[in-house]
Amino acid sequence: MSRAARGARRTLVAPIRWYQRFVSPMRPATCKYYPSCSSYAVTAVERHGILKGLVLAAWRLLRCNPWSKGGVDDVPPLGEWRSPTLHEGQHNDHHHLSGTAV
């Protein structure tokens, strides 16, 4: 990856990191998805690049609505658009993936 591409990604991720550090801790935890939408956005941009990462992050934000069940929704692997780990209605811990109750 070129120096310019790394710089552009850092520039795009910086406001999200600022939000995670200064704004998010002051708000109650209300995320329906795991990882949170801001963490998802950072990972999507870092993994898929600016254009595809922003599209994936925007789609995640659109899905995060009052009618959504939420759940575990990891950023898809390179070359894919859908998360193989989407488990709707289950979130905030990974214990359900192994079948153990919390």
Automatic annotation (TrEMBL):
| Gene Ontology CC: one annotated term | plasma membrane
Q: Where is this region: Disordered?
A: 68-102
**SMART domains on file:** Haemolytic (SM01234)
Coiled coil feature spans = none
One Pfam family of this protein, by short name? YidD
Its predominant location is membrane
Q: Which domain of life is it from?
A: Bacteria
Q: Which UniProt keywords apply?
A: Cell membrane, Membrane
Query: What family is this protein classified in?
Result: Belongs to the UPF0161 family.
Matches recorded under HAMAP family = UPF0161_YidD
| Job description of the protein | Could be involved in insertion of integral membrane proteins into the membrane.
This one is known as Putative membrane protein insertion efficiency factor
Organism the protein comes from? Luteimicrobium xylanilyticum
- Tell me the classification of the organism that encodes this protein: Bacteria, Bacillati, Actinomycetota, Actinomycetes, Micrococcales
